[in-house]
Specification:
The complex is a heterodimer of chains A (85) and B (221). Chain A is mainly alpha-helical. Helices cover 87% and strands 0% of the residues of chain A. In chain A, helix 2 packs antiparallel against helix 3. Chain A is flat, with a radius of gyration of 16 Å. Chain B has 221 residues and is mainly α. Chain B has one domain. Classes of the chains: A mainly alpha (85), B mainly alpha (221). Chains A and B meet through helix 1, helix 2 and helix 3 of A and helix 2, helix 3, helix 7 and helix 8 of B.
C-alpha cells in the first residue's frame, strides 16, 4: 500500500515537471500546457491520498481509509469554497 | 527560496510565495516517497493533523492574495525572523527520544498548532516543517525521525492546498517552479555532502544569520 502511494507521488511530480518543461518549449498559444503541468503537480498529493484511502479501505484498514477521505474532503471543500469566494 | 526570489531575482513576493509552494510539492513528493517506502511516515498522525493544516494553508494563501505586496513582504520578513529564532533554539526544542508511541498524545493541541503551521505555510510559501516537527515531537511525543518523515509527507499536502489558491489566481510562474525544482536536487546533494564536514551548530547559526539578514531586507530596515 505504502509502495503504491510512494510511486504515485514520484510519478505525479515527474509527470508534472515534464509537462511544465514541454509547455515552456511550445509556441505562446500552447503555453497552457505548462499550466496543465502545474495543475498536475498541485493535484499529485491529493491523488496519492485518494489512492491511500482506496487501498486502505480495500485492505479493511477503515481508520486510515476514513482519515484519508476526511483529509481529502477537507482540502477539496475548503479549496472549492475559497476559489468561489 | 522566497527571499532568494524576491531579493536576488526581483520577483514579486506573491509570485515567489506561489512558486515556492509548488516547488515544495515536488520536493516533498520525492522525499516522502522514500520515507513511505521505509515505513517511517506515521500515517495516523499525518492524516489526523492534515485536515486542520490544509485548512490553515488555504486561509493563509487567501490572506496573502488579498493583501498588497508591500504588506506581504513585511509579514514574510517577520515570519523569517521567527523561523531563524526557532532554528537557533532547535536543539533545546527536542524531546527525549521517545520509544515508539502506539496512541497519539495531545492530538487536539497538535491539530491546533498544525493549523498555525498551515497558515504560515500558505502565507509565506514555506513547508511548515520547522513548526510541524517540534509540534509532533514535543506535544505529541512522536520520535524525532518519525516526526521528520511524517512532516515531509504532510508538507506536500499542505503546500498543494495553498498552491491551488495561487494557481487559480494565476500567480504561479512555471519557469520559476521548473528552475527551482531542478536546482533543489543537486543543491540538496551538495548540501548533504557539505553538512557532514561542518558542525551542526555553525550551520544553524550561519543559516539563521542569512535568514535574519533577508528578513531585515524584506522589512526594509
Amino acid at each position: 500500500m505504502r509502495g503504491d502511494v510512494s510511486a504515485a507521488l514520484r510519478i505525479g511530480a515527474i509527470a508534472g515537471l515534464l509537462t511544465v518543461a514541454l509547455g515552456l518549449g511550445l509556441p505562446k498559444e500552447l503555453r497552457w500546457v505548462s499550466k496543465l503541468g502545474l495543475a498536475v503537480i498541485a493535484a499529485t498529493p491529493s491523488s496519492a491520498l485518494l489512492l491511500l484511502a482506496a487501498r486502505s479501505l480495500a485492505n479493511r484498514d477503515r481508520s486510515t481509509g476514513a482519515l484519508a477521505l476526511l483529509t481529502l474532503l477537507a482540502i477539496l471543500l475548503s479549496a472549492t469554497l475559497s476559489l468561489r469566494g | 527560496m522566497v527571499p532568494l526570489m524576491v531579493l536576488v531575482l526581483g520577483v514579486d513576493v506573491k509570485v515567489a510565495v506561489a512558486s515556492s509552494l509548488l516547488t515544495i510539492v515536488v520536493t516533498s513528493a520525492f522525499s516522502s516517497s522514500v520515507y513511505l517506502r521505509e515505513r517511517l511516515v506515521n500515517l495516523k498522525a499525518a492524516l489526523s493533523l492534515e485536515p486542520t493544516t490544509a485548512l490553515g494553508a488555504i486561509l493563509g494563501a487567501n490572506i496573502t492574495v488579498s493583501l498588497p505586496s508591500g504588506v506581504v513582504r513585511r509579514i514574510l520578513g517577520f515570519g523569517l525572523i521567527a523561523v531563524s529564532i526557532m532554528i537557533i533554539l532547535k536543539p533545546l526544542l527536542r524531546a527525549e527520544e521517545a520509544e515508539g508511541v502506539g496512541r497519539l498524545r495531545n492530538i487536539h493541541l497538535g491539530a491546533a498548532a498544525s493549523f498555525v503551521a498551515g497558515v504560515a505555510s500558505g502565507m509565506l510559501g514555506i513547508g511548515g516543517g520547522v513548526l510541524k516537527v517540534p509540534v509532533m515531537n514535543l506535544i505529541m511525543s512522536i520520535p524525532i525521525r518519525e516526526a521528520v518523515a511524517t512532516s515531509s509527507f504532510m508538507v506536500g499536502l499542505t503546500a498543494s492546498s495553498g498552491g491551488i489558491v495561487y494557481l487559480a489566481k494565476g500567480l504561479v510562474d512555471p519557469v520559476l517552479v521548473l528552475g527551482l525544482a531542478l536546482g533543489v536536487a543537486p543543491g540538496a546533494t551538495i548540501g548533504a555532502k557539505t553538512l557532514k564536514r561542518l558542525k551542526p551548530t555553525y550551520i544553524r547559526l550561519a543559516f539563521s544569520l542569512v535568514l535574519m539578514y533577508a528578513a531585515l531586507r524584506l522589512i526594509g530596515w
